[in-house]
Design a protein that fits this description.
Helix content is about 40%, strand content about 20%. The protein is an alpha/beta fold. Strand 5 and strand 6 form a beta hairpin.
Length: about 350
């Protein structure tokens, strides 16, 4: 058995840990839910115990190269510290990497979760083998990661890829970052819910109003379900979502001119509700995309997996800009976390 690494996804609600071989084989994955201890020290105890169990289980067959840990927030890469995160109280300004390395006596890499999702998709997912690509993650907010030459691009101090805080509307909705009109105010799960509540407040969206008052969780998924069922107000929300996502991508393509942009995160699964409007906006707003767009950008989405992969391979050989949904789902960050230590091992 080849050498292996362990990837960790340290989220605000659960802790996911996986052992992955150097060839990308998932050896084992464990999930520790939010019902467990929630203090910083208790979470680190849980994490280290699980890593030690997994590394001990597989070390007889291969060398343990270390652990990669993905966390949401702004990271000081050199110090191995989390500078800012809304979802991990108690971790800010704490020497996370040093403490975990001390306990494990192994190499540890602390990295932003969106960066690791990008690396995972570049290694084993939708952008497999594509050296220059980016991931845009559509969740409660918008995250992003850039891979250049097969390696994460961090920028000057590790903050590259803050796609969610690109301004789309100068006098738009206030954002938690202090700016107005940020992309995540228009093309995220939170934005979808906000637009739905605005439609409900107008008194002209009865189906959305019923869904919001049903007692079930009212979120982007329930609004998408209504769009699929043909509700015009829900469909209008996703058309607006697609337009703004297209505007964001147009700017990224004009600046970066990468081979591929992968759309990940929870809202990416609503691809059929927004993709057409996204591509229409892209052609209008990006001269680079207009010059490099595939003839039928939605084609691979309507084909089978093998045919779709063949269509994308052909587009790559012709140096086209590919925009496609992610393939690895929530496991992208786990694979990326494992990869970041495997590649350095």
């Amino acid at each position: 058995m080849p050498d292996f690494s362990i990837g960790v996804d340290l989220g605000g609600t659960n802790l996911r840990i996986a052992a992955v071989s150097g060839a990308g084989q998932l050896l084992e994955k464990v999930t520790l839910g939010s019902k467990g201890p929630s203090t910083r020290d208790a979470v680190i105890d849980q994490m280290c115990d699980a890593i030690q169990r997994l590394s001990g289980k597989y070390k007889e067959s291969g060398k343990f190269l270390g652990a990669g840990i993905g966390v949401p927030g702004i990271i000081d890469l050199q110090a191995g510290m989390l500078r800012k995160s809304a979802n991990l109280p108690g971790f800010e300004e704490y020497p996370v990497r040093a403490e975990i390395e001390r306990r494990l006596r192994a190499r540890v890499v602390l990295e932003n979760d969106a960066n690791l999702a990008a690396l995972g998709e570049q290694w084993l997912g939708a952008a497999r083998g594509v050296p220059n690509m980016a991931v845009v993650t559509l969740g409660t907010g918008i995250g992003g990661g850039i891979v250049l030459g097969g390696k994460i691009w961090h920028g000057m101090n590790g903050m590259a890829g803050e796609f969610g805080h690109v301004t789309l509307e100068p006098e738009g909705h206030p954002c938690g970052c202090g700016n107005r009109g940020c992309a995540e105010q228009y093309a995220s799960a939170s934005a979808i819910v906000r637009m739905a509540r605005e439609a409900i407040a107008s008194g002209e969206a009865p189906a959305l109003a019923r869904a919001a008052s049903s007692g079930a969780e009212f979120g982007a998924q329930s609004i998408y379900n209504l769009a699929v069922q043909g509700d015009e107000h829900a469909r209008r929300i996703f058309r607006s979502f697609g337009r703004y996502l297209g505007i964001l991508l147009a700017g990224l393509i004009n600046v970066l001119n990468l081979d591929m942009f992968v759309i990940g995160g929870g809202v990416s699964s609503a691809w059929d509700a927004y993709a057409r409007n996204m591509f229409e906006e892209l052609r209008e707003r990006s001269l680079v995309y207009a010059a490099t767009a595939p003839t039928h950008p939605l084609e691979s989405d309507s084909l089978g997996k093998e045919e779709g992969a063949a269509a994308q391979t052909e587009s790559r050989s012709q140096r086209k800009t590919i925009i496609t949904p992610a393939l690895l789902g929530s496991d992208a960050g786990l694979y990326g976390a494992a990869r970041v230590t495997l590649s350095a091992g």
